[in-house]
Amino acid sequence: MSAKAHLTIDRIRCDGHGLCAELLPELVRLDDWGYPIIAPGPIPDHLVAHAQNAMTACPVLALALKRAEKPDDGRNPRHR
Amino acid sequence: MLWYTTRGAGAVSLVLLTAVVALGILSSLRFEAKGWPRFLTAGLHRNLALVTLVFLGLHIVTAVVDPYTNLGWASAIVPFSSYYRTFWLGLGTIAAELVAAIGITSLARRFIGPRAWKVVHGLAYAAWPIGVVHGLGTGTDAWSAWFFALTCACIASVGFAVVYRVLSISPDRLTDPRAAFRAAVDRRPKP
């Protein structure tokens, strides 16, 4: 996984379990309703393993690592 | 020796399976407390489940190869096919197969998608009680005080978790529209 990978969130699947923010606080924080807000830009090398952890932990598979040409705009990746 | 291993591994499987089911219910409730973040519930659920599969495998293999009962491999796969305690042992076969299905679909979750995974995962609510009844029905130790107390403690734990979960379901008027919307999204052709 290169540093080009981005963290994406499937807003429709996300149920706000909040595990991603617990496991990857460097890149994910929660809004007032418990849904994740993801830091823009590629995942730094030293956080890639943690990002994969968070992705695996998501109970509803809403979190994904994507190699994106453009930074994630926060929308559902399936809509592109 | 094998028979003792079978019994021991069976009891350990019962305790582990109970813990896994209770933790799974806690996950869905988004349980958290000071010093117990949510990822701890999920991580324990996952890792204890994998340990359970090991002990369940040990329980089954030692039971089958034990020369005294001479069960044969078929009885580990086909329910109610063993001459020995046919009904109660068959329940164990069914429970083990349900657990195996839950384990395999969980490991392949990313490939089969969350919906199919969740349907299979719900079988845990069948597998656990079937396993408990199997333990009470066929267990050599079933009516010894320690095993009976253990079973009661297990039933109490899961029973408490289930009641708590049922009580905490809040009526959500948007459940059906949400489900319809999700189905529509999943039907969209992939780009």
Which terms summarize this structure?
heterodimer, A: 80 residues, alpha+beta, Alpha-Beta Plaits, two-stranded antiparallel sheet, 19% helix, 20% strand, B: 191 residues, mainly alpha, 9 helices, 75% helix
Describe this structure in words.
The complex is a heterodimer of chains A (80) and B (191). Chain A is an alpha+beta fold. Chain A contains 2 helices and 4 strands; from the N terminus they run βαββαβ. Chain A has one domain: Alpha-Beta Plaits. Chain B has 9 helices and no strands. The mean pLDDT of chain B is 88. With 191 residues, chain B is an all-alpha fold. Chain B has one domain. At the A-B interface, helix 1 of A face helix 2 and helix 9 of B.
Summarize the structure.
The complex is a heterodimer of chains A (80) and B (191). Chain A is built from two helices and four strands; from the N terminus they run E-H-E-E-H-E.
Distance between the termini of chain A: 22 Å
- The CATH topology name of chain A reads Alpha-Beta Plaits
Shape descriptor of chain B: globular
Number of domains of chain B: 1
The amount of beta strand of chain A, in percent, is 15-25%
Order of H and E elements of chain B: HHHHHHHHH
Estimated share of beta-strand residues of chain B: under 5%
Shape of chain A: globular
* Helix proportion of chain B: over 70%
What's the mean pLDDT score of chain A? 83
**Overall SS class of chain A:** alpha+beta
- Give the C-level CATH assignment of chain A: Alpha Beta
Largest sheet of chain B: none
